[in-house]
Design a protein that fits this description.
Blueprint: H1 5-25, H2 29-54, H3 60-90
Helix pairs in contact: 1-2, 2-3
């Protein structure tokens, strides 16, 4: 059985949808960060997928995926540093409590 484009797109779409749902419904900054990473991983799957099906002999999609993973790692490090600083000040990582940081 040959794997078609749709067989890869459906799990990626489900991952992206779960990421959007998690980002919009969660109030915890860590859970929102995890949801954002889930969305970025779904996009990375699509980069590799479309590269494989549109340009089978080239690696542009794979390079985009590696670049996106590196950017996501840097973004996660910065986001966790911000969350740690928010926790130190507010003693909570709930989004509704962030207004305590205003002057």
């Amino acid at each position: 059985m040959e794997l078609t484009l749709l067989m890869y797109l459906i799990p990626s779409l489900i991952m992206f949808g779960c990421g959007i749902y998690g980002f919009l419904t969660r109030k915890n900054m860590i859970a929102m960060l995890i949801s954002l990473e889930l969305m970025l991983n779904a996009v990375d799957i699509n980069f590799a997928l479309f590269n494989r099906f549109l340009y089978p002999g080239k690696l542009e999609g794979m390079m985009f995926s590696l670049f996106a993973i590196a950017i996501a790692a840097a973004e996660t490090a910065v986001a966790i540093a911000i969350i740690i600083n928010v926790y130190r000040i507010a003693k909570n990582v709930d989004i509704n409590q962030i207004n305590k940081l205003k002057f």
